[in-house]
User: What shape does this take?
Amino acid sequence: MKLSQQQKAYIAGFLDGDGSIYVQLKPNTSYRYKFQIAPMIVFYQSQKENSNLCWLQKTINRGYLRKRNDGIVEYIIGDTNSITELAQNLLPYLRLKQKQAKLLLEVIKRKKNLKTAEEFLALARKIDEFQIINYSKKRKQNSIMVEKILKQKRLLAP
Amino acid sequence: MKLSQQQKAYIAGFLDGDGSIYVQLKPNTSYRYKFQIAPMIVFYQSQKENSNLCWLQKTINRGYLRKRNDGIVEYIIGDTNSITELAQNLLPYLRLKQKQAKLLLEVIKRKKNLKTAEEFLALARKIDEFQIINYSKKRKQNSIMVEKILKQKRLLAP
Assistant: This one.
């Protein structure tokens, strides 16, 4: 990923205006702690004007485009290494979403070094913070669900 | 208006992501040709996160903020000189809305040199182009209304 200063500033502005930085906690029994932690950086555009997303994808050279049924095209960067690289590149230029980018980098770092169910639960609580700083309307405390499942599966003491 | 290259690139990205460039044609009998031509550059943000719009206003040093009833804050630049200056600054950095910025500058230039009702009608037709390039859902051909009124008022031959 080789971005000029000008490209970084433009992409940061575009992400602040019409993008999202968040982490999904998805129930998935095949994972050690029964949840997948999926960090995301997403850009949106209506299908009619998705040339800008094509340019973005070509410039950033990571991630993929996805057409939604409602006519919105999403440009999704979901691979951990790509996200880390992009977030580090944009961090000094972001304004509105700088908090989210910092939190994302912290979650990715802690995710790599997880050793216990207790640490997993603490990370799930950290991920809850996204709901607050993103002013999410369907604000859920996913960590409560995580705690319940980890106890059910005897990964945490009841 | 003194913007660094980095600020111009960021603002262009933000405008491409979440802003609007358009021209309103408002019926107004006090005007010579019975319509006011009002060019606009507008940035949007939810009220909870309007700190970025405050920063933008401070940085661009033009225009004003307006709270809508639905919780959206608009940062509006509507003064012709300010728009011209801003559009010229952002033009090389815009991607999605570069067409709109060029059209805006052309409309402003022609507006200054209007001499006849025929020229006014031709300009109204030019303004119709915004509906197309902005993929406006309520696409109206304002020039048809302009022609009708100019003929009613005997400013144009019927």
